[in-house]
């Protein structure tokens, strides 16, 4: 087990929640502590991919602690230096755009902002249908931002969704280990 405390933040790309939970299960024995964070939508919206309360319960069961869902709950993470790294799994296009443009209006974006202010690494596991169109500019901004790293990603369905990118969730632990050392895991594009 590595002496690393990980913030595991989930946003509303509900179709990738099963992959995110599988990645988290694998991470459980690898790191000293995992702090669960969910955006308001991830924690509160029922979808065809499951009920919100069940997702919250599952995340709490895996991590062994209550999920942080509000701005006041996550804001101290930065000033108190409580986390070594935050990984956003999945990171939606909306969250990507907000982080790229300095908007911190949710628990996940506030956690990212509070964490980055201390020069600590933020790892993004992108999952969005517009990464190569409307969000391409934001992706470019964050690729060039200090202390922001990405889980290797690729087009998940190039014919039906040519602008979509999705992270390789199996590589999250490897990407965490690189990011805490200040290194972008390569190859970035799969």
Short description:
The protein has helices spanning 17-27, 40-44, 52-63, 71-74, 93-100, 107-116, 136-143, 172-179; strands at 2-10, 31-38, 85-91, 122-128, 148-150, 153-154, 165-167.
Description:
This protein is α/β, with parallel strands linked by helices. It has a single domain (2-179), classed as Rossmann fold, CATH 3.40.50.1950. It contains eight helices and seven strands, in the order E-H-E-H-H-H-E-H-H-E-H-E-E-E-H. Strands 1, 2, 3, 4, 5, 6 and 7 form a seven-stranded mixed β-sheet that branches. Helix 5 crosses helix 7. The longest helix has 12 residues, at 52-63. The protein is globular, with a radius of gyration of 15 Å.
Secondary-structure map with pairings?
Layout: E1 2-10, H1 17-27, E2 31-38, H2 40-44, H3 52-63, H4 71-74, E3 85-91, H5 93-100, H6 107-116, E4 122-128, H7 136-143, E5 148-150, E6 153-154, E7 165-167, H8 172-179
Parallel strand pairs: 1-2, 1-3, 3-4, 4-5
Antiparallel strand pairs: 4-7, 6-7
Helix pairs in contact: 1-3, 5-7
> Main sheet?
7 strands, mixed
CATH fold-level topology: Rossmann fold
User: Please, what is the average pLDDT?
Assistant: 92
How much strand content do the residues show? 15-25%
- Shape summary: globular
β-strand number? 7
* Helicity level: 25-40%
The CATH architecture category equals 3-Layer(aba) Sandwich
Detail the poorly predicted runs.
none
User: Would you list the SSEs in sequence order as H and E?
Assistant: EHEHHHEHHEHEEEH
Spatial extent as radius of gyration: 15 Å
